[in-house]
Design brief:
single chain; 259 residues; mainly beta; four-stranded antiparallel β-sheet; 0% helix; globular
Length: 259
């Protein structure tokens, strides 16, 4: 499993170890170094074993361990590492507020990372922390976060949520019924709610098909149905929706007909 950003990549290997390479300005390679000249080969991330999920944000990374705990490393100016500080970490640091692993509702199953914020999927819903200029951690846009406990995003489906994705300044979850719900920034209609208004609570994407999988881009979302159809919506300035149109945004899902 590989997560990519323009300047940093990470991979989880079958043993559960994590390797990263690329830019390391904030220690996002996770090997206790901060280097101006980034490593060009995969480097073992320290103190990570039995990882089940890893994702790379703008300049930080997070991994879920088999026991449901979460560790993050790299830049931390917006508290996106979830350790209650604003100090960058060049080795993984444990996210607080998810530490009571005897509580199954706080056990993480998947992780997502965006621009200066992070999210995990638990059996009680999506919980996010870090930057909140657009409500992407589940609080009113711009609300002050105390940095201590990941915030539950209203409307994320609780135990029905199957997967989570985040990039840019918004996130989405896929519910058991195939419903895609998104929250956060909405300047390019990536929430597909008929507006360009940021949301601190997840809203179902209007017109989205029943999905089997979703992927979240910087300003757009694509959903795959069980029948193999692909539907996308949101920003399209570079043609990233693949629908044969130069329109800059699509506020409702549109099917790719060339697949």
């Amino acid at each position: 499993i590989i997560s990519r950003k323009p300047r940093t990549s990470c991979a989880r290997v079958s043993s559960g170890s994590v390797y990263c390479w690329g830019e390391n300005t904030y220690g996002q390679i996770g090997n206790a170094t901060v280097l101006a000249s980034p490593p060009t080969r995969p480097t073992l991330v320290m103190d990570i074993a039995n990882a089940t999920s890893v994702r790379v944000g703008s300049d930080h990374s997070c991994a879920v361990r088999m026991d449901g705990s979460v560790n993050c490393w790299g830049n931390n100016t917006s508290r996106q590492l979830g350790d209650g500080t604003e100090t960058a970490r060049s080795v993984p640091t444990r996210v607080i507020g998810l530490a009571d692993l005897t509580d199954s509702t706080m056990r993480s199953t998947a992780v997502a990372a965006g621009v200066d914020f992070s999210c995990v999927l638990t059996s009680s819903g999506a919980r996010c922390w870090g930057a909140n200029g657009s409500g992407q951690i589940g609080l009113a846009a711009g609300a002050v976060w105390d940095g201590m406990v990941p915030t539950l995003v209203s409307g994320t489906g609780g135990s029905t949520a199957l997967s989570i994705g985040a990039l840019g300044c918004f996130g989405c979850v896929l519910g058991a019924g195939g419903v895609t719900s998104c929250w956060g920034c909405n300047t390019e209609s990536q929430l597909a709610d008929g507006t360009t208004t940021a949301r601190a609570a997840a809203m179902p994407a209007t017109g989205a098909p029943s999905a089997a999988a979703i992927t979240v881009g910087q300003t757009h979302v694509c959903a795959l149905t069980s029948g193999g159809e692909v539907w996308c919506w949101g920003g399209n300035a570079s043609g990233q929706l693949g629908v044969g149109s130069s329109l800059p945004t699509f506020s409702t899902p549109i099917q790719l007909t060339d697949l």
